[in-house]
Write a structure and sequence with these properties.
single chain; alpha/beta; binds iron/sulfur cluster
């Protein structure tokens, strides 16, 4: 984040001033402060099925997930959590609802964080036990307020879920933890309505300095959920609000991770893998840009080194876009296309396989960058 902000120092219109927050640790991953904004997702396997859950988390790791959450609705789940935590590389958050015992078991099993609302646990001694387990096992907590499950008294006070009610709920949970001398927590105030979520996050951002886990909940399927999440998170991230994000999609969790990264990448807040700049094509295009982009995305999905590639159909926008990318192609006549390397016209490709040619240039450039880092 800071590094990207430095790059954009002379472009004030691209600079995002992040909200100042405390920093907490979710396992070995810092959240808040000057830490990079992390991308989270959640498993949808039965947590009690350790094998399936581990396999799913590994698929999420392959696309860059920073933190993974698993629901722990029963004892079988917290029992499996131990094996899961040991088998994966990323920190695991245990999602607990009302059963405080599951929270204690999860902390003992090695969860890096508990998603639990202390106000929902009931008796004060139970809260004390949870907090003690979290402290003993170096486990952080996420207070997760959701517009769809606000406390009855707040609904009666405010009449309906609203930003004020959500902030009040979150702060009441926060006070409980603070009263137990526990400050190692982050907060989320999610809603499926974009305006409600954004207003609630603005409210909680102003009310405290805890790191915020940002998301638009139950956002929908891959397309609609991506749009809603991008709008909601985009508004907040542009204001510097958000320390860790979860895109909530009715889709495979890997998709949530990919979309999360794309949101952060498009705002210059994280960089990972290939970013393709491509044109929509029109009658001027000199090769099949759409197919090329599809194939390149698949072919280069394994690359984690940040690199930009411009894939442009003709000279109208090709040279201009290529100037700012690592590798570029501009379609030309006679099936002869101009190739750019580091923004400079380098050579022409005549009658060649565009996808393979670009992919090999990208791989060579990645190898060069990785070598330079050593
Ligand atoms: Fe059409 Fe060329 Fe623009 Fe692509 S760059 S949309 S091919 S005019």
């Amino acid at each position: 984040m800071d590094q990207l902000n430095d790059i954009n120092a002379h472009r004030p219109w691209k600079k995002i001033a992040r909200r100042k927050t405390r920093q907490i640790m979710v396992g070995n991953v810092p959240v808040g402060g000057d830490a990079p904004i992390t991308v989270q997702s959640m498993t949808n396997t039965l947590t009690s099925d350790a094998k399936a859950t581990i396999e799913q988390i590994k698929r999420m790791e392959a696309v860059g997930v920073d933190i993974v959450r698993c629901s722990c609705p029963d004892e079988e789940s917290t029992a499996a959590l131990k094996e899961i935590v040991q088998a994966v590389s990323v920190p695991v958050v245990a999602d607990i609802h009302f059963h405080y015992k599951r929270g204690i078991e999860a902390a003992q099993a090695g969860a890096a964080c508990l998603r639990i609302n202390p106000g929902n646990i009931g008796a004060a001694d139970r809260v004390a036990e949870i907090v003690k387990a979290a402290k003993d096992h170096n486990c952080s907590i996420r207070i997760g307020v959701n517009a769809g499950s606000l406390e009855q008294e707040l609904l009666e006070k405010y009449g309906e879920p609203c930003p004020e009610a959500m902030v009040e709920s979150a702060m009441a949970h926060a006070r409980i933890l603070e009263n137990h001398d526990f400050f190692n927590f982050k907060i989320s105030v999610k809603a499926s309505d974009v305006f409600l979520a954004v207003a609630a996050y603005r409210g909680i951002a102003a009310a405290c300095d805890y790191p915020l886990h940002v998301g638009v909940t139950e956002a929908g399927g891959l397309r609609t959920g991506t749009v809603k999440s991008s709008i909601g998170m985009g508004l907040l991230l542009a204001e510097g609000i958000g320390d860790t994000i979860r895109v909530s999609l009715s889709a495979e969790p890997e998709e949530e991770v990919r979309v999360g990264y794309e949101i952060l990448k498009s705002m210059g807040l994280r960089s990972r893998g290939i970013t393709i700049v491509s044109c929509p094509t029109c009658a001027r295009r000199r090769y099949d840009v759409i197919k090329t982009v599809q194939l390149l995305e698949e072919r280069l999905a394994h690359i984690t080194t940040p690199l930009t590639v411009s894939v442009i159909g003709c000279v109208v926008n090709g040279p201009g876009e290529a100037m700012y990318t690592d590798i570029g192609i501009t379609g030309g006549g006679n099936n002869t296309h101009q190739i750019y390397i580091k923004g400079v016209a380098d050579h022409r490709l005549k009658d060649g396989d565009v996808v393979e040619h670009i992919a090999s240039l990208v791989e060579a450039r990645v190898a060069e960058i990785e070598e330079e880092k050593k």
